[in-house]
Each structure stands twice: as structure tokens, then as C-alpha cells.
Design a protein that fits this description.
alpha+beta; 7 strands
Length: about 150
């Protein structure tokens, strides 16, 4: 999958929004690009994400709410966070992150976003931005997360 994605991308940044999630702000990408442009030593930016019911889209809280100020997290924080530290629809990272990923990543690792988070944070940390610009749908019985919880 990722080789095809990279072949189709021409920019310096990549943002992820999987099919069951959605972005809430038309300014999300511009804000994240601007923040990363100001910190050339940082390769990854993220923000908090609303928890939305899979059918009604009613908001029921947030993931990754780390406050009202921008904050730089160390790679160790990302590793200890074990994939849940930053929600996938909040991620924006420099395309160069893929140059640091090991070859096995491109042969379909079990959880891709975790490795993007870790390798994206290695060079300069992970930049938290104080906005909520995406939603993560919860509870859909056909989603990967629900299927794994039902049958670990």
C-alpha cells in the first residue's frame, strides 16, 4: 500500500485520514504545515481528536488532549504511548520519514500508524498542536479496532 501512496504523493508532507475517520477543520492541513515549516528539525505534528459515535457522529470526548499550548514530546513518550498516544487522523509528517522506515514496513506491518509515529518522532520529537481538527469514529462493528476487541 505505502509504495503506491508515496508514488501518488508529490508534496513534502503527508497527512492520514482513514476511511472511518473524518477531518473537522478546513484549516487543519495549513495549520500543521505552517507549524512544521517553523520547526524544520521536527518531522511530525498531531492534535487531539474528537471521539464520534459511528452512526450519529455525536461527540463523546477526546483522544490525545494534552492541553491548550503547543508542546513537543520526546520520542520516548511516543514509544511508551504504544500507538494510542496520537490518533491517526491527526497525523501530519514529512515525507522524509519514509526514508528512515525499515524495509519490512513496506511489506505490510500489523499496525502501520504506530511505526510512522515512532520513526516520525525520532529526529526532533512529536509536535502537539492545541486544536481538535479530526474525529475518530467509535463503535462500528466492522472496524479493525472493534473486530480486534471482539476477537483478540
Amino acid at each position: 500500500m505505502w509504495p503506491d501512496v508515496l508514488a501518488a504523493c508529490s508534496g513534502d508532507y503527508i497527512a492520514i485520514c482513514e476511511g472511518d475517520d473524518f477531518w473537522l477543520s478546513s484549516g487543519k492541513l495549513a495549520y500543521q504545515c505552517s507549524a512544521l515549516d517553523q520547526l524544520p528539525h521536527v518531522d511530525l505534528a498531531f492534535h487531539k481528536v474528537a471521539r464520534a459515535h459511528w452512526q450519529t457522529e455525536q461527540i463523546g470526548g477526546y483522544y490525545a488532549d494534552y492541553g491548550d499550548e503547543p508542546r513537543l514530546f520526546a520520542p520516548a513518550d511516543v514509544i511508551v504511548g504504544d500507538g494510542g498516544f496520537m490518533p491517526t487522523p491527526s497525523l501530519m509528517f514529512r515525507r522524509a520519514v519514509f526514508e528512515r522506515l525499515p524495509a519490512w514496513f513496506f511489506t505490510r506491518p500489523p499496525v502501520e500508524d504506530y511505526f510512522i509515529q515512532v520513526f516520525g518522532a525520532l529526529r526532533g520529537g512529536a509536535l502537539y498542536l492545541p486544536l481538535c481538527a479530526a474525529a475518530y469514529r467509535e463503535g462500528d462493528p466492522t472496524s479493525w479496532s472493534q473486530r480486534v476487541m471482539a476477537n483478540p
